Backbone:
């Protein structure tokens, strides 16, 4: 601890990873950032699109899912692994996922390429 490295707990081997598991975790972390005032939905969407080179981020994914589906997945993951990162955010617990993200801008943000100083 304290060395800047992530501590990854051991888990039982698994045959597959569900895409819903991955999306639910990303959506959960996004809602926690928004709830704490660290980022806006647009900040998160832009960061994932540009930083991970994806066509969409967790906010866009969340618009197509229900809070109850995400909550069920997160609760299942928490019961299986007992890791706090799977504890659902209050937005998800209160069933306000779509309402929380409804105003996200859908178009890709403009990017500018700056000349390199050599």
Residues:
């Amino acid at each position: 601890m304290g060395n800047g490295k992530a501590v990854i707990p051991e888990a039982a081997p698994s045959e597959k990873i569900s895409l819903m598991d991955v999306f639910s975790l990303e959506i959960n972390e996004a809602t926690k950032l928004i709830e704490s005032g660290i980022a806006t939905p647009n900040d998160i969407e832009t960061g994932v699109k540009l930083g991970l080179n994806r066509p969409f981020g967790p906010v866009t994914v969340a618009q197509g899912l229900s809070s109850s589906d995400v909550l069920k997945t997160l609760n299942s993951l928490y019961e299986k692994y007992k890791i706090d990162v799977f504890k659902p955010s209050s937005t998800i617990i209160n069933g306000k996922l779509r309402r929380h993200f409804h105003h996200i801008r859908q178009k890709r943000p403009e990017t500018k390429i700056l000349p390199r100083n050599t």
